[in-house]
Q: What sequence folds into this?
């Protein structure tokens, strides 16, 4: 459902500053979706109930005509009665559809309303200081974030971007504590492609423009070229207007990941943040994507923050930050070294 996909996409919607867009989309389509779901489920329940009742009446009549010596018909009558009860339960469940849809919409609203407790400041510095690792980085440098699964790598980048509240003194933007900066100050500093990019049931163009609503077609094609996806989209009927299906069902896993990359490329921000950008890609496609990414970074002057378990994306970075765990106090345990020393 649309509300479930938007809920799953909440981190991206927050990072792209699309909270108002999501609320408008739900307001526009939510009532129609819940009404249609309720009508469909209710109709299905009524059909099942009427069929079961008719069956019960017919079997009961046949049983009466046959007399008491028809055990098969008696058993069939009992089965029809059970089916009638079950279909009534289906109808009752249909009547709950309206509440289920509203609950999903409310859940999305709660996700989008999660903000770091802070007061917004006019502009944030792209310079990142991580006192726990005695590290300062700024664009156009590249920062590789490595560590075991579950250690807190994604949590760290979400704290950098203001998608989760940071601990006091854990992350500084220039001289300002991220804990004291508003989310609306932090998020413009970052373009984000999460590990599992969520795609809307819409066209390629609409999915890309989530990150840059005013992007021209030339901008969209350039981003697709850099994500090594332009040829695939040109070959699709409709090109940029081709539907991607529910959560990108018409695309392969690697194509969905590259469409998420292209979307992040479109957002003008000092930092490009990529979480497992080449996971699932074959070696040749990975090499093509990274070659074009390197050229794009050189042209844009953006800094790169990349989380990956694969060595090739890490080779684009100057410094490696190792995430060990999230401590009992909630702080992320980190250490830094030159990337070559960490390899």
A:
């Amino acid at each position: 459902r649309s509300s479930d996909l938007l809920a799953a996409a909440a981190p991206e919607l927050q990072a792209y500053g699309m909270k108002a867009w999501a609320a408008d989309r739900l307001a526009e389509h939510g009532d129609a979706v819940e009404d249609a779901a309720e009508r469909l489920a209710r109709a299905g329940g009524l059909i099942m109930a009427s069929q079961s009742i008719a069956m019960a009446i017919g079997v009961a009549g046949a049983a009466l005509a046959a007399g008491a010596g028809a055990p098969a018909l008696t058993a069939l009558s009992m089965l029809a009665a059970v089916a009638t009860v079950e279909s009534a339960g289906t109808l009752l469940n249909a009547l709950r559809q309206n509440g289920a849809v509203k609950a999903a919409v409310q859940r999305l609203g709660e996700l989008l309303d999660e903000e770091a407790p802070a007061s917004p400041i006019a502009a944030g510095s792209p310079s990142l200081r991580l006192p726990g690792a005695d590290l300062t980085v700024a664009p156009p440098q590249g920062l590789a974030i490595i560590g075991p699964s579950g250690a807190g790598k994604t949590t760290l980048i979400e704290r950098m971007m203001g998608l989760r509240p940071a601990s006091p003194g854990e992350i500084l933007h220039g001289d300002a504590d991220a804990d004291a900066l508003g989310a609306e100050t932090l998020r413009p500093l970052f373009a984000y492609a999460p590990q599992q990019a969520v795609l809307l049931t819409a066209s390629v163009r609409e999915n890309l423009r989530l990150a840059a609503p005013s992007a021209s077609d030339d901008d969209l094609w350039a981003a697709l070229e850099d994500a090594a996806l332009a040829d695939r989209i040109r070959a699709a009927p409709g090109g940029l207007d081709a539907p991607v299906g529910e959560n990108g069902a018409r695309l392969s896993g690697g194509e969905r990941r590259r469409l998420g990359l292209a979307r992040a490329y479109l957002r003008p921000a000092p930092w490009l943040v990529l979480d497992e950008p080449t996971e699932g890609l074959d070696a040749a496609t990975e090499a093509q994507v990274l070659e074009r990414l390197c050229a794009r970074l050189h042209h844009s002057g953006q800094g790169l923050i990349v989380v990956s378990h694969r060595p090739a994306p890490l080779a684009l970075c100057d410094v490696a930050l190792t995430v060990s765990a999230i401590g009992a106090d909630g702080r992320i345990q980190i250490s830094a070294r030159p990337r070559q020393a960490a390899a």
